[in-house]
Amino acid sequence: MEQRRLGNRSVGAIGFGAMSFGGMFGPTDEATSLTCLDAALDAGITHLDTANIYGMGVSEQVIGRWGQRDVHLATKCGIVSGPPRTVRNDEPFIRQCLEESLRRLKRDHVDLYYIHRRQPDMPVEDVAGTMAKLVQEGKIGGYGLSEVAPSTLRRAHAEHPVTAVQNEFSLWTRQPQLGLIQACRDLGVAFVAFSPLGRGMFGRQPLKRDFRAGIDFRDTNPRFTEPNFSANLAAIAPFRELCAARGWTVPGAALAWVLAQGDHIIPIPGTRTADHLRDWQVADLGPADIADIEQILPAGFASGARYSDQQMAFVERYC
C-alpha cells in the first residue's frame, strides 16, 4: 500500500476507523472484529482510529485484546455522554480519560491522541498546553483535533505543533476544502478524513433504509431520512454505473477521489467485517476520471445536511 506521513511515522495511505466495533451501525461481536483487524493488517493498513465513546469503551477493548503492537494507534477524548451530551477539555478530565483508554487498549502510551470536540469556552491554547505535557511525559506521541475550524488549528499549532486534524470528508461532504485541508497542508499537519465512504452510501451495494432506531444515528440524520435518502440514492446511482463500466469498486473509486485531494490526506473508512475490506482496493484514477466523477457528483450535490442540529453540537462552523 502507498505510504503517507502521520506525524513522524509513515503509515498506509488508508487507515481504519473502528467506530463500528462499538455497535454504532449494527450488531457485531468480538470474534468478528478481531478477524476484521487481522484482515486490515494483512491489507497493509497500519493506522487504527478509535475513541473512548465508541460503544462506551468497547472498541478500545477489542483493539486491546487484539494486542497487535506494530500499528499506529489513535484514540480520542472530550465528549461526555449524556443526556445531555457535553464536552470537557480540562486537564484533569483529559488525563483521566487517557488513563482509562490506555487500560482498555493495554498500552502504556498511544501514538496519537485527539480532542474529539473542542470545549467552546476554553482557550484552545490551554488544551494544546495539556497535550504538550502528555507528549513530554511519553504518554502520547502527538495530538490531534477533530471537527475544528482552520483558525482553531492555527492557534493550537502555534502553542504546540498539531500532528493531525480529523474531519468528515468525502465526495458528498466537502466543507474541509474551504480552508481546513489547505491549512493542514500549509502547517505540515496530516488531514485524517473520517466517513470517506459516506457512512455506507458509497458501499458495495446501495443502502437500504433499515437503520436501528435509537442506536444507529443515521436513523435521524438528515441525509438518511426521506425524502433526502431517496434523492441521494438517485444522485449516486450514475456514479455506481461509472464504476461498473470502468471496473472499479464503488468504495475503491470513492477512496481514490479522497486520496487525490492532497498527499497529506489519510482516509479512515470503517467496517464491521473483513469481507468489506476487499472493496477498498483503490481505483487508479487519472485526471479525466476525476473530472468525470466530479461532473456526476459535483460539490454540494447531497440532499440534506450532514448532521442534524443536535448532532452539530460542538462542531466548529467556519463557512
UniProtKB/TrEMBL annotation:
Listed InterPro entries: AKR, Aldo-Keto_reductase, NAD(P)_OxRdtase_dom_sf, NADP_OxRdtase_dom
Matches recorded under Pfam families: Aldo_ket_red
Chain ranges passing through the membrane: none
Domain NADP-dependent oxidoreductase: 13-280
Keyword Oxidoreductase: yes
Keywords assigned by UniProt, alphabetized: Oxidoreductase
Protein name per Swiss-Prot or TrEMBL: Aldo/keto reductase
Annotated organism of origin: Paracoccus rhizosphaerae
